[in-house]
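Inputs:
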Amino acid sequence: MTTTTPQPLAEHGEAHGAHGGHNMTGFIIFLCSESVIFLAFFSGYALLKLSALNWLPAGVEGLEWRTPLLNTVVLVSSSGTIVLAEYFKAKEKIWLFRGFWLLTMAMGSYFLYGQAVEWGGLQFGFTSGTYGGTFYLLTGFHGLHVATGILLMAIMLIKSFLPGNYVGGEQGVQATSLFWHFVDVIWIVLFLLIYVWQG
Amino acid sequence: MPFPTTPEAMTTTPSLSQDQPKLSWTRYLGFSTDAKVIGIQYIVVAFFFFLIAGFLAMIIRGELLTPPADLVDRTVYNGLYTMHGTIMLFLFIFPVLNGLNNLLIPTMIGAPDMAFPRLNTAAFWLVPVFGSLLIASFFVPGGPAYSGWWSYPPVSIQNPLGNLISGQSLWLLAVALSGVSSIMGAINFVTTILRMRAPGMTLFRMPVFCWTALAAQSLQLIGLPALTGGAVMLLFDLTVGTSFYRPEGGGDPVLYQHFFWFYSHPAVYVIILPVFGIFSELFPVYSRKPLFGYVYVCVASFIIVGLGLIVWVHHMFPSGVTMWMRNLFMFTTMLIAVPTGVKVFAWLGTLWRGKLQLTTPMLFCLGGLINFVFSGITGIMLATVPIDIHVSNTYFVVGHFHYVIYGAAVMGIFAAIYHWFPKFTGRMPYEGLGKLHFVLTFVGANLNFLPMHPLGLMGMPRRVSSYDPEFAFWNVLASLGAFLLGVSIIPFLLNMISSWARGPKATHNPWNAIGLEWLLPSPPPVENFEEHVPTVISRPYGYGTGLPLVEHQAEIERQLILQEASA
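Outputs:
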């Protein structure tokens, strides 16, 4: 959606906007809508947890929070590195942009790796009651968004090597960055709900 | 007309059709990105599914002609009403309304096309994909989904045959794809309305149809993700054995009801709001008066959006919700009657002392309005907790929502099709067939759905294939009405096909209506006004005021008339 190329008619009629040039508007509307699906999962999680008689499955003590906290710090800081990347793009320092962009991708990948390691060491599965169900649903659906963000960034990175492609305009960089901030904010809420609120 | 014609005025006219290549009808069969082609594709596909779901309704009413279950097997009957409701909503009403949005939004606001034409194409082509999935579920082992169109657990998470591909899992997949398609459409419609209006067209100079489309599509964006989330969890419960909704694993079946109705109640407003828009467009044209209370009608749409999001629990009064929730949601539900009432009085004020022209579209609007007021009254009855608990799951509810959806919404959609048919096909529909269609529809709908109210009050439950003989009288009447509705579609289809093929040629403005779309040739060229978009200088619906809608209006109209004379 972010990468919709300009339509042939984009040349005329900027006053009343012909096609193209609305990508950010459309993308912001999409993100607002997408946030509702997380809101639905969050409220489902809270309702199931509050009404549960035995929330933790037998033999499960709760979640270890130190490694996930490190993961959180990495993911949240990557919101800063992507801002730096955008800043250098605006300054037309294309190599610095690529550097920080790649760093953001690396931090996102580290987060996914950490998540995979955590999943591998857990005592419960997707079908272990509502506790296991909601845990894997929320972290899995969020992880899917992280992976999508990394994929989008990879596309942007490849596009930056096309000659003349990064002259003027946002070329999807702004939208990708917005998506990445969205993924971060969702994670903060998720971390609070799942790891901090264990009582 | 007393406004100036300048040399520039000559350049503001739409491009003439001489330099347009003759467009082949085969463009309707391919992946077009033109909103006017996609609009007609949506409408035609929607009516294809309308015929299928209507056929299912005929079987259902045939079964209910007699008290015993004698026509179809009970399990088949469960599949029939499930698929009737699902197809009518997800494959008829939503696609047909998206078709109207595609045709009307760009032309009414003077945009050349939608904001994202290729997203538009993709959204449309998902419809036949999930439509085929749903139809395919008739042929899988165990038959189609049978848990009703709302698919409540625990019924919907039963999988007695143990197959991964069951009617229910295909149903969930189809509904999820339908959600994706609707979200893609909604992003497109909202962006187009917000960003691509003609110069001078402020929000309060925008036609009401666009206001209601904006309101309805905002509801899609807020509500649909909740249903999608709930459906994903249901799919996991059904296929991999999670227990989100399974009480034995700590889950809660009522949670699904919250997710479902958080979307599916607003979905009713997604359906009815554009129909309010159609009423607001058509009553001024055929009463020759400005729309009464234009600003209030616009604002009321968004009050309905806000309230529509906080009423869903009224569908769950018998589902073990707490007393304070019952009271709260009874109150918010009744509150919705206020903005809706504002609209009804605005239409009555428009009709009051107007020069009424009882054309086919006007008849459909008037009939739809009458049915809507009736369904609104039964809606207030149902909002009241004691009445709702008494008639819950009876035919009273079935009668109520069929009045809303067929009596009001589908009749409004027919009005819109007859009204804008000449604009987008360039041909006039036949009045005689249209009026016959109206009479059959109005009589058929009332004969079909009115008897359901006494049946419900007497205590006949919905979704049963056999019933007590004391209910037979009203059921026979309802079935006769249903068969009449089945017949009513014949003059409609005849009219559409024959008048598009060889109906009289339509001028650019056969109804003498005011609006940007009527300042385009019939049918409009591919990019509508292209770069010559007129500047809007006044509010819509200036009937009888003599005020022009756009700059150089007389010049534009003269050009169109000259062009029609030379063609």
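Remarks. Residues 69 and 465 of chain B are 5 Å apart (CA to CA). Residues 36-566 of chain B form a domain with the Cytochrome C Oxidase; Chain A fold (CATH 1.20.210.10).
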